[in-house]
Request: fold
Amino acid sequence: VEYEGEIYEGKRCGNGVLYDRNGCVVYEGKWVDDDRFKSGMRTRVEISSSLFRIHNCVEELVVQDGCCNDSSWRTLDFQCMFALKLLNVGEKCFQNVDEVRLIGLPKLRGVTIGSNSFTKEKCGNDPNRRFYLKNCPKLKELRIGFGSFSDYTVCEIENVDALKAITVGDLNEWSYSFYHASLQLTSTPVT
Reply:
């Protein structure tokens, strides 16, 4: 028996093929935590303060308030989460993350970030803190709570042609989000 495909922490995870001893395919498809991905597997994951493991077939990711603030969180890259449709981050999360990459997510429809998340220092100016949202063709809504990303200096939003609404902060209130960043919003011209 032989496996050819993606592995995470020594376990089959992602796309892969399992062969029998004669080289015939036994199973080809998605794997999660060393098991074959089955219809009905948990596609909604909630992260609390406890340790967790996320598979790349997650469709909805919810991060509870005050989570993921230890110093090991430096870069948050969702590129391998091809099935992700909804991302909901609570308040005061990911304070030490310097770079957020939501790039090439074909099914992503909505992103909501609670207040004071992705912020170390309110109104700081850290040139190493960056937010990228690119090539997500189904994204319709981006919501960012007040005070989030306040010390990020880059905010690039590109090729999100279905985007209908960007909400940052609360109406008639100071937001401080991306306080020292220039917003770069670009799209591929339709031909």
